[in-house]
Amino acid sequence: MDSHMIKDSYRQMVVDAGNTMVSLGLTVGTWGNISVRDVETGLIYIKPSGMPYCDITIDDIVVMNSKYEIVSGHRKPSIEFHFHIGIMNARKDVNAIIHTHPIFSSAFAVTRQDIPGISEDFVQIVGDKVINCEYSLPGTPELAINVVKGLGDRNAVMVPNHGTICVGADIPSALKICHVVEKSAQIYIYAKLIGDPQIISEPDMRAMQDFARNHYGQGK
Ligand SMILES: [Zn+2]
Fold it and tell me: Ligand 1 is a single-atom ion; what residues have CB below 5 A from it?
């Protein structure tokens, strides 16, 4: 591996995203993990296993390829590298993956319920709903198969009794998905306490997704 293919800027993205994830309360301790793919080289930069986010520097980031091989780094990669690389291989539109252990969406993962499409931001950028994939033990190749299948073409999936996985074209997009999924889970739980939450209709979901994809933003 040519060392010039390894980019410090990508290592730094993983370090920074980890600190952001902790500061937003989306995980605790060493749990959760992050990866980002450099589309130019196809290399995937991933968090090291079992290190507190505040201790991780760019020298600790592990670089892997699409064949699940380590190409650079002296640390062991996150035990969840199977699903990070599995998702990257299955979804060419995904270049960043953030796996969180959050509170509100975990309530859905523990009760194995879907997070339904109840708010505009959620249906525009996450999908019609977020489902639980089939249960498997953490860090196993079986979990990776179940995660890829459960994610499908949505931008988030829950792992039963474990946590949430959010994906995006880059780190800011994946972080936004984490935020919106967690917010929607919180809203739904609160809404259930005071009444009967209404789900957005399928035609309206499609219309909002089309608008977000094709017309929203400056210059569209
Ligand atoms: Zn986890």
Answer: 163
